[in-house]
């Protein structure tokens, strides 16, 4: 799964962000390879090849680390390679949820409240999750937000520019993010929005030579959705699905 070169880059990052217990994890490389294999193939945990170690060890490690925010920290660490903030891009996508994604523990509240907490909901596209990403100028993911499938992308996009390590020159997004208040928020950050107006809105400045680069973030989603666990949500909890997104994005950073 992982070449020696890839593991040489990944191992110190994982060691830096993983929780420090009384005993170090056994066969960390094999466990990471099992986690990557499962999410790239979208298989059941029990289908993890035996040569990658016990399936339950990989499952427990991934889920526990997802709850502790390890995968988000891993994504933050790979960004120390250098974020390109000349242009940043916002884009969202709908992720259909597999039937096995339902059934998370309720922890109080109704079924609707549980689905909202776990970022699951029904839209015209079916049962799923809405995921929104902000990417740097080279099309590498900086941060994610997730919401139930019926939710609009804009409310979750508003906090994303605040997660950047600096001030970008441009924030580029499609018409789905067209909002006067959102443009004002971007201007307040000393950045410039490149978001075209909707057909029922007054025209706004959106330089074509900037907006034409928006395909960069669309290509990012295409790469991330090569992971079957990103293209289809199998995870029951929002924290585990966020872990899948951040892990896939971190590996994408290491490849680019």
Automatic annotation (TrEMBL):
Residues 2-74 form the Insertion element IS402-like domain. It comes from the Bacteria. Keywords: Plasmid. Residues 171-255 form the Transposase DDE domain. The keyword Magnesium does not apply. Residues 100-123 are annotated as: Disordered. Coiled coil: none annotated. PANTHER family: BLR1914 PROTEIN, PHP DOMAIN PROTEIN. This is IS5 family transposase. It comes from Microvirga terrae.
